[in-house]
Design goal:
151 residues, mainly alpha
């Protein structure tokens, strides 16, 4: 096995880990008794509006809260897409970009810095970068069926 193939094979670990984490995270959102947007409102009003940077609080109050149902269902759809794509090994690079976008927003909402030792969201961003740059869906995944682009 060449070094490139070993790197991509090793990237299966973060790919499966992130897929499993997002599968676990989306399950309660899919089964929330009053819907996920209601739970999201509570989090945003009680955590994010106190901890997020001022500019992000403005974004939340001006854009997210007025469109809470849409944003809530978009988060659920994005997390479900990430879980299925990473576990199935298709569109892994797109899924990695979605992971980065979601986790950076989660970090901002919590008021956590990228370098915060308590931030598992930051660790997930780093794992998603590994997936993004190694394209492990080409090993044990449906991305292997996609023709390689010529560079």
């Amino acid at each position: 096995m060449t070094n490139d193939k070993r790197i991509v094979a090793a990237a299966l670990i973060p790919r499966f880990y992130l897929g499993l984490i997002f599968l676990i995270a989306v399950k309660p959102k899919l089964t929330a008794p009053h819907g996920f947007p209601a739970a999201l409102r509570g989090f945003l009003e009680n955590v994010a509006m106190q901890n997020a940077p001022a500019w992000y609080q403005s974004f939340l109050s001006g854009v997210v809260l007025p469109h809470l149902a849409l944003v809530g269902y978009a988060i659920v759809a994005a997390e479900l897409f990430v879980a299925v794509a990473l576990l199935g090994g298709f569109a892994t690079r797109i899924a990695a970009v979605v992971v980065i976008f979601l986790n950076l927003n989660y970090m901002l909402a919590k008021g956590m810095a990228l370098w915060s030792p308590a931030s598992n969201d930051a660790a997930d961003v780093m794992l998603a970068l590994v997936v993004l740059f190694t394209d492990p869906g080409r090993v044990f995944g449906f991305d292997a069926l996609r023709p390689r682009s010529r560079r």
